[in-house]
Every structure is written in C-alpha cells, then in structure tokens.
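4.2 Preliminary Data

To establish feasibility before requesting continued support, the project team ran the inverse folding procedure on a target of 179 residues. The structure was first converted into the token representation described in Section 3, and no sequence information of any kind was made available to the design step. The complete token record follows.
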C-alpha cells in the first residue's frame, strides 16, 4: 500500500477510539517531571497554552474538543463573524502545551501515575549497571585471588629451588667425601 493511503487510514479514516487518542499534546516541564510523561490526551477543563501559530501566547481552559480535526477550542478565544456572531476558534492539538490537568477523573490520574514503559526501560538499565558493577567487583576480587595464587606459586617455586639447592649441596658433599 502507498504511504499516502496508509496515512489517510491512520489519520482521516481512523476509528473513533484511535482518533480520540490522537488528540494529545505535550506537557509543561513541571507536569513532565511530576508524571514522568511527555504528552497526555487533552480533556475538557485542562488548561492549555498556545505555542505556535496566529494565536501564540493565549492561555485558557479547553472548552470543546473536535475529533474530526484533532483540534481544541480554548475559552475566551473567539472570532466575530460579519453578522456579529461569535464562534470558537479551533487550534490543532500539536500547537498547544498542557499547563495544568483536570484532576476530577480518578481513572485519568491513576493512568498518569503509572510508570511509563520508557521509565521501566531506564530502571532495567540501572539494574544492569548494578549487575555490571558487581561483576567488576568480583573480577577485582578474582584478580586479587589470582595475584595471591601467583605469589603462592612463586613461594612454592622458591621452596622447590631451595630444596633443589639443598639436594645439590648434599650431592656435592657426598662427592667431596668420596674423593
């Protein structure tokens, strides 16, 4: 299948469940540290700040969400029509940063406080580092024990040399007696 066709399936013809998850935005630095996540699904009553586009710098609560366009409407951000009517301006969710979350939903908080997979991977990496440090400590201990073994072998070699030299002395003394 062509890439354009795949992209259209994933974005424009996506099922409601998938399209619903696509309306996400990055978290502010404070929230990122708190929940150890980079992005979150935007919900009504979250506070968001526009960071790109014509309405850059506007901050307010999310009043409406459009799954058709993956966009959100922020309270107080309205446009006046020629007839005098005021309509909401929808801003794409990728142009927004979430500055505070709606904490009324217990399920959402529970999900946010779970450890993300990336954190689990980092924890596994830490465990591996600890195991590596333990193994290096064992290697050092092994090297010390091998050094002791070498010292022991040197001392046994000296003992052998000493025994050989005493044997030679005995042989020399026997030869001198025969003469």
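Position-by-position output of the design step:
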């Amino acid at each position: 299948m062509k890439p354009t066709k795949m992209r259209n399936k994933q974005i424009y013809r996506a099922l409601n469940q998938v399209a619903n998850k696509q309306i996400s935005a990055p978290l502010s630095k404070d929230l990122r540290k708190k929940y150890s996540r980079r992005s979150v699904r935007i919900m009504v009553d979250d506070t968001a700040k526009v960071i790109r586009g014509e309405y850059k710098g506007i901050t307010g609560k999310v009043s409406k969400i459009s799954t058709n366009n993956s966009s959100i409407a922020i309270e107080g951000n309205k446009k006046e029509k020629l007839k005098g009517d005021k309509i909401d301006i929808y801003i794409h969710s990728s142009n927004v940063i979430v500055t505070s979350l709606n904490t009324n939903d217990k399920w959402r908080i529970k999900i946010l406080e779970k450890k993300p997979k990336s954190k689990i991977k980092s924890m596994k990496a830490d465990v591996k580092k600890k195991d590596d440090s333990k193994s290096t400590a064992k290697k050092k201990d092994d090297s010390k024990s091998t050094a002791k073994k070498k010292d022991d072998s040197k001392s046994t070699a000296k003992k052998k040399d000493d025994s050989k030299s005493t044997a030679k002395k005995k042989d020399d003394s026997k030869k001198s007696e025969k003469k």
